[in-house]
Design goal:
single chain, mainly alpha, Vanadium-containing Chloroperoxidase, domain 1, 0% strand
Length: 190
């Protein structure tokens, strides 16, 4: 564990050394848009405007719920890993996270990877899948760049988010199959 912590610390200090106004102008708004899941919830809700994307909506929404429960309810309060800027004296955070002192795993990353994986599994729209993964990678990197998560926090958040949506996809597929079967049986009996 100590070796992994040393790698995490080294990466965080390297990222602080490459901070610049251009990257900050891009990554600060991205990281702030993830506060309280606002951007992810809004984007998932937007899929409701496409009739063909109902499965996508349910998969991403349920994946977000499952991933958030694991991250926010189960892991963060029990692991209680301090944020990097608290543990690494030389590191300065670019955003205030005093309301949530726990770092592991990254909730922002969990949410956006749940959305991206939900879209990947359920959507028929290639552009939606690509957009989801680009946003997921940018959000994850932004959490490292601003100094509020270690790489292992972000990796765990990504895995939890993707697992949440994979589980959600299995549930949604079964629910839709059962609905279609019931619909067919009803049509056959009339």
């Amino acid at each position: 564990m100590e070796y992994i912590q040393q790698i995490d610390n080294s990466i965080m200090l390297f990222l602080q050394s490459i901070r610049n106004p251009v990257l900050s102008a891009i990554l600060l708004p991205i990281t702030k848009s993830g506060n309280h899941g606002i951007i992810v919830i809004a984007l998932i809700l937007l899929t409701l405007f496409f009739k063909s994307e109902r499965k996508t909506f349910f998969t991403a929404a349920l994946g977000l719920i499952l991933g958030s429960l694991v991250t926010i309810v189960l892991l963060k309060p029990f692991i209680m890993r301090p944020r990097p800027y608290v543990s690494i004296e030389e590191l300065a955070a670019l955003v205030d996270m005093s309301s949530d002192p726990n770092s592991f795993p990254s909730g922002h990353t969990t949410a956006v990877f749940a959305m991206a994986m939900g879209w990947q599994l359920a959507s028929e729209k290639k552009w939606l899948k690509i957009f989801g993964w680009i946003l997921a990678v940018l959000m994850a990197f932004s959490r490292l760049y601003v100094g509020v998560h270690y790489p292992t926090d972000v990796l765990a958040g990504a895995l939890i988010g993707m697992a949440g949506s994979f589980t959600a996809w299995q549930i949604v597929k079964r629910a839709y199959a059962a609905f279609e079967k019931r619909k067919r049986e009803k049509n056959e009996s009339t």
